[in-house]
Amino acid sequence: MFSLKAASGIISNVTRFSIARQICLSSRRQADSDEWKPSTNQETDESAPFSGGLEKTINSVTLLGRIGSQPVKRGSVEHPVVTFSLATNSNYSYANGDVSQKTEWHRICVFKPYLRESTLKYTNKGQRVLVQGRIIYGEVRDEGGQLRHTSSIVADDVIYFKSG
């Protein structure tokens, strides 16, 4: 059985390799393509729109924490989703020796069918999990008509740790 530290290190290395490989492969495809042309603008105008094809970006989130609410299945039959909350902690030390801990809560959404079903079946409130995914933002109107901003993590992978 791997220790938590060893598992985190392996996951981190695999993630870094995977991202670097994807960027390298997509750059190679872009360079081999006839559509890609280097910018002829010699000025470094920051406000000029990017004109060199599709720009590569990264939206990646990795969280390690404890499940705060029992996962529930929501949505419609055509578009089901499993949601749960995840707690992560940050520890702070002050100059006078006091130590403080702040808990952040994250809304996790699982859309992938196989991952959705296994998350619903094998996770429980209080269990430690590692979630890899991406962050999304949205807006909803509450009953009072006020516009509220939301953020969620869409899980691409959930790794379950043995509870107990």
What would you say this structure looks like, in words?
This protein has 164 residues and is an alpha+beta fold. The chain folds into 2 domains: 41 residues, no CATH class; 100 residues, Nucleic acid-binding proteins (OB fold (Dihydrolipoamide Acetyltransferase, E2P), Beta Barrel). The protein is built from 2 helices and 6 strands. The chain has a 5-stranded mixed beta barrel with strand order 1-3-4-6-5. A hairpin with a 4-residue loop joins strand 2 and strand 3. The longest helix has 29 residues. About 13% of the residues have low confidence.
Number of helices: 2
**CATH topology grouping of the largest domain:** OB fold (Dihydrolipoamide Acetyltransferase, E2P)
CATH class of the largest domain: Mainly Beta
CATH architectural grouping of the largest domain: Beta Barrel
Q: What is the spatial order of strands in the main beta sheet?
A: 1-3-4-6-5
Anisotropy-based shape: globular
How many distinct domains?
2
Strand content: 35-45%
What is the string of SSEs from the N terminus onward? HEEEEHEE
Summing up helix and strand content along with how strands pair, one would put the structural category as: alpha+beta
Q: Sheet with the most strands?
A: 5 strands, mixed, barrel
Task: Please provide the count of β strands.
Answer: 6
Distance between termini? 15 Å
Mean of residue pLDDT? 80
Rg value? 21 Å
The residue fraction in helices comes out at 10-25%
Low-confidence runs of at least 5 consecutive residues: 23-28, 30-44
CATH superfamily of the largest domain: Nucleic acid-binding proteins
